[in-house]
Here is the input.
Amino acid sequence: MIVSSPVPWELEPYSIKRHGVTITNCDSEPVQTPGCVQAHGALLVLRRCDLTILQTSDNSGPRLGRLPAELLGRPVAVILGDALAVQLEAFLTREPVVGTPLFLATIQIPNQAEALDITVHTVGGVVVLEFEATGYAETRAPDYYTIVKRTAARLGAAASVREFCQISAEEVRRVSGLDRVMLYRFHSDDSGEVYAEDRRPDLPSWLGLHYPAHDIPKPSREIFKKIWIRPLPDARGELAELVPLLNPDTGQPLDMTYCALRGASVMYTEYLQNMGAAASLTMSILCENKLWGLIACHHCTRARLPYQVRAACELLAQRISLQLPSAEEREFHQYRARMDEVHLGMLARTADSGELDTMLTGRPALLDGIAATGAALYHRARWSTVGSVPLEPALDRLAEWLRSRPEFLDRERPVLETDSLATVYPPALEFADVASGLLAVPIARGPSSILLWFRPETVRTVAWGGNPHDMPTVLGPNGPRLTPRTSFALWQESVRLRSLPWLPVEVNAALTLRLMMMDLVVSRLEQLAALNAELSRSNAELDAFTYVAGHDLKEPLRGIRKYAAGLMHEAESSPALSEEGRERIAAIQRLTSRMEALLNSLLQYSRMGRLQIDREEVDMAAVLQEVLEMLATQPELKGVQLRVPRPLPTVRCDRVRLRGILSNLIGNACKYNDKTGPWVEVGFVDPSDTTLKTDAAPPGRAAEPPLPDLARVPIEARGQRIYYVRDNGIGIEPGHFEQIFKMFKRLHPREAYGGGSGAGLTISRKFVEQHGGKLWVESEPQVGSVFCFTLPDSPQEEPASNG
Ligand code: ADP
Here is the structure.
């Protein structure tokens, strides 16, 4: 036995003769027309117009003191007496009795131990009278007003739906006095869960028990939408059939939807029996005409559920149904507020750092908002993930599928949410354990950048208080079906490949987050645009200044040079000037030439900055050839080996500037080289290249100069082709990687390594940036350097995505 019950169970508690009930045919059981009543009470069916008795339960002898034959076709006064019969007539016209059983009177039948409560309602043109022993002969009826008032106040203060349900269970148990009160909550797939419970302390808990949809068959659910309460005070008690079974006037069975005495289905009594219950009382929780859940009360022994108790419970069920929507709303509201707060905090951090993937780490982060077990962000051609998520190749394929989905491309609500991804996207079968549920939104105008939340299969998230696998298998009259353990197993089957569903409030929060992220991305772009405008303005001013300064300074410099030359000429013929004086004049001449060289570099730099670039299809190999010819006269190039590991491509760029870049980088690579076997390599790398091909390193050399490292490419250059010039020269200390690009910055004494103005790299970087590209260096001192640059087709081009 699951629950030790003071009453020994009879395995076949019903006398009703029905056979062949199976789990599948219970959906078609005639729940509302069973043709029998619970035999602890009796029932009469009257013709509405003259109150003649048309049908009676066949236990009228023992219960009402008259056999069916003495009742059928006779006026109801035979049982009620004349006065009450007249009162009934008035009651029927005055009270709202259609489908609502109301208390009429208590009568004492001669020779009966207990007085009987009579309730009356009408259905389908007949009057139904139900007779039950009062059960309240010696006790006072409960004070409805106080009960409902107290319950309403407690329910109104509940902070969550869970607490609301717990209070409901406690209040119903207090009023009904039954051993166990459970609050079943239905899920969207009609399966259910014991969501709250109040029970006799010595009974085991069913809290958290999940059961499949068919545990509560459809016809029962339909009835529960119409009635508030369903008493079954003696589940193993006898049933009394109606005589005749069909209404003699209409030939129809009696619709017993609203009868408190309606005989229960075999399925239900078996279920109760397997749950260890001898009596039950069930109430509906209805929200917006939908069956939200049930309040199921069980008692280990036969129970007394007189009209007064039922009425009080009914009132409670109505009150609970009435107040539940606002409790749900409160909870959703709080949840939504919490999610929005998390998202805002997270975006504030993201705005500070400038990187979207900041959202996934630190506090608060993405997983603190919408309840999920994993999340992934695809942005700037790469994935950032947190929690349990599918592997990256699977994510790539999922993203590709998403981008083709119409709901994801919808302009108004671009969102895809599913609690069973494998059903709509079969490859998800392989990662159902981490991602049966998916909520996805695009975070840019196009669908390339996306944000995903994942949930695992429901079975994996359900915390089960008392392990159902530890429960003994109970055999009911029809085998082990409909026991908590079997129910749980069936439920587990029914939720395979399914996650907890995404609530509308979560989907809306995801959409709002999307808008906020887009704002952030857009406002960052605007910021960048403003900064760029500011920069180009000051650049233009600087260029103008440089030009004017360079141009105007050359004038007096020419004068100084002229006078110095004159002085020198005079000095040569005048013995009055000392050797020292002559050297000083020579120094003036050297310094002025140097200053002129610097001014020329400045002028070249500013002139280039002022001219538009002129893009065309340029054969890089041809440009390299020109550069080599130009450099051929320079002494540094002598003995340097040139390597080109693979044929150079055609590039859309400004030919003159590309020549300038290459000649500067190659010139430097030759100049800053003190090795005995100097070499220079010119090549390129594509983002898809996994291994970089170069000529083999010269034998005997241990350390190789670095190759462009794809992992260290600046963000703006990611996803683009990288051109490079690499050497086995003297290398550069990492601390100087940026300094060498500053105007006139040299790392060596003026004349060392063939001298130079220190403007070459500044000018090269400017040329690359005019194309919208990047120029940077990686190097290892004593080993060598690699100068890398990109030349995007157009300056505004966004890094290409490879997803
Ligand atoms: P310049 O060569 O006229 O001095 P650059 O702007 O071309 O000016 O280079 C600036 C400095 O960067 C050089 O003085 C040198 O110290 C360093 N440098 C440039 N290229 C290399 C290289 N390939 N290897 C080592 N150091 C280099």
About this structure: The pocket of adenosine-5'-diphosphate is lined by residues 664, 668-669, 672, 727, 729-730, 732, 740, 745-748, 756-762, 785 (CB under 6 Å). The CA atoms of residues 161 and 327 lie 6 Å apart.
